[in-house]
Every structure is written in C-alpha cells, then in structure tokens.
Amino acid sequence: MANTSVMIVGVGGQGTLLASRILGNVAIKKGFDVKVSEVHGMAQRGGSVVTYVKYGDKVYSPIISEGQADIIIAFEELEAYRWLPYLKKGGRIIVNTQRIDPMPVIVGLKKYPDSIIEKIHSLGAEVIPVDALKLALEAGSVKAVNVVLMGVMAKYTDIDKEDWLNVIENTVPARFLEINKKAFELGLALNN
Fold this sequence. Notes:
This protein is an alpha/beta fold. The protein has helices at about 15-30, 75-85, 105, 115-120, 130-140, 145-155, 160-170, 175-190, and strands at about 5-10, 35-40, 50-55, 70-75, 85-95, 125-130. It contains eight helices and six strands, in the order βαβββαβααβαααα.
C-alpha cells in the first residue's frame, strides 16, 4: 500500500492532538507503519496547531511537504485556507465550518476573510464542509468536534467502523466515551 499522508490543522484547544492519536492508533491497529509529528506553535494562546500523520507499509518520516497531503482535516476555516498549499492535486480537505478569530482580527488589525470554502473550491480542491460544532453539540459536548471530524474522515478510509470505535474506547477518557462515540457516529453518518 502506498503511504497515506494526513494533516490535521486547527487552533490550540480544539483537540487536534487527540484526533491525531486516534488516527495514528487506528492505523497501528490495522498493521500499518505509522509516524506522527506535532507542531504546536502558540497553541496555548489560540495559535495554529498542525499534526502530520503518515501511515502505510513503510513510513520513513512524518513530515509532509507542500503538495503532498492526501487529506487535510481542518478544524477551522482559516486554518484550512492557510494549509491548503500542502494538499496534493486530487486530495481531499475536510473543513469544519466554524470560524475562530485569530488575534489580529480580535484586536481589529485584520478582517476575517469571506467565502473561504468557496475560495478553496475555486482552487480545484475537493472540499467537504462540515458543521462539526453543531454535530458535537448534538453529541453532547462542544469538545467533540475533533471526533466528529474523525467520523467524517473514516468514510474515506478502508478501516472498519468497529476498529475506529475500539480505538476511541481505548483513547478517550471513560467519562467522555459515550459523547465521543456518538460524535464519531454523527460524523460517519453525515451525507456530504
């Protein structure tokens, strides 16, 4: 199997690192060689966070260069646009339609760009917009956005739902398990 390169991008506090652990663990469970690398930036201050996850028969490095990501999972629209150059031609970008204003927007120095999803479409990428915040709230917690997005991604893999749920059960703290299982199911069931 050729390697699959996935970038998970978002803002500090959105759960990107848990999502990368879930993805990495499910790939390990399926017997793939897996490499994960996390770049935190100013994550604790709401800054950009990116995680690289590569899996396949043999992976030598987790780093994904521009034009190499098979899938980008963006937890926020502006982060999707920021990391779009890393998506390979014919790649897929799953975008949470939530907007989180970065500091320059908050202090009035910049304006949040309009029509980001449409701009990404116009550049030829396959875009899957998801109101993951709405689905997370339906599951029972705003913090389940990450697992909703994992559910959406799961539709585009050859990995069985049961394997994903087993990894979630072994990765998520018990007190949040039912919420996260429901969040995954809602993402998986979403018609895009």
